[in-house]
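step 4 of 6: structure.
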Amino acid sequence: MQYPEPIARLIDSYMKLPGIGSKTAERLAFYTLDMDNDDVTAFSQALVAAKRDIHYCSICGNITASDPCAVCRDKTRDQDQVIVVEQPKDVMALEKMNEYHGLYHVLHGVLSPIDGKGPEDINIRSLVTRLQQNEQIKEVILATNATPEGEATAMYIARLVKPAGIKVTRLAHGLAVGSDIEYADEMTLFKALEGRQEL
Amino acid sequence: MQYPEPIARLIDSYMKLPGIGSKTAERLAFYTLDMDNDDVTAFSQALVAAKRDIHYCSICGNITASDPCAVCRDKTRDQDQVIVVEQPKDVMALEKMNEYHGLYHVLHGVLSPIDGKGPEDINIRSLVTRLQQNEQIKEVILATNATPEGEATAMYIARLVKPAGIKVTRLAHGLAVGSDIEYADEMTLFKALEGRQEL
């Protein structure tokens, strides 16, 4: 005996999502049956609409419903700084800060030789072209994650961009605000010591 | 700055699912953007189809695409036994065993005074009607879960059904096959001792 086909197919679809196994997929499918009709319809339409209407900005690579994206179109933003991030989510995190008013460049990944990911597999070439074509940009701020891959990617981009005479900086590493020294890992403590500043 | 509307709406939809918070919803939404077009379309259609085409069997309460369900329609199954379960998933688990060929009755919940769930809120009345109308049924096997609510629900149904002269049984409780006594909880051990059988 198997589940009726409509529910079996829904379970299959849920199982295609990352981190969702067969048991969770079953639970989500049964939950769907009990959801409001309107919510299910909205969900169904949102899936297709996101896939159809979301594109990557041809300038910075961030996700957008219109090309170029809102940030790249906004000429009131500082045109001389570009923050390079791994993912669109990172742009959101930095924007929430409300302190940065420059531009972005989204790599969509990091260099990772183990996974066979080289410079051609992430959005690096378009960054170089952008810097060559846009002489307003004076500083590239590398904001890849503080992981080995993120560090390596930052180093790679720095070596690529510096010879063109553009200032290249990296976000500071150190103790998170509100965190305890007691619980900080060794690498973080080392980076915090290394980057200490005179008061 | 906010996410472009198509992705924001998809994140909202994912967040309506149980156990999925805003971070996971974001992750799933971005994953959706990278999925095959065909998979997203299939997912979208499966949501609507499941909601539209899945109904509850008017006889047993199990989910089905056609009423009555496949089990209730199948006259080759034993018509004298009914297993009472909490959820459609429980029917699937029992069918996988391939040893039971009788009928089912799905309660869609358990009695739970704390949550304000009484006999009227689960599928008990239809069970009583079914037993009154169908004199072929000789045994009701209670297979609600081995939780306090499951036990209470089993007791309630037993008291309701027994006076009609129908045999009422409950699935055995005891050690799971392949499990260690060392790790069994006290209630399970007590039930296993209580239900010991002569060899």
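step 5 of 6: annotate
 - The beta strands of chain A are 55-56, 63-64, 81-85, 103-106, 139-142, 167-170.
 - The first helix of chain A runs from residue 5 to 15.
step 6 of 6: archive
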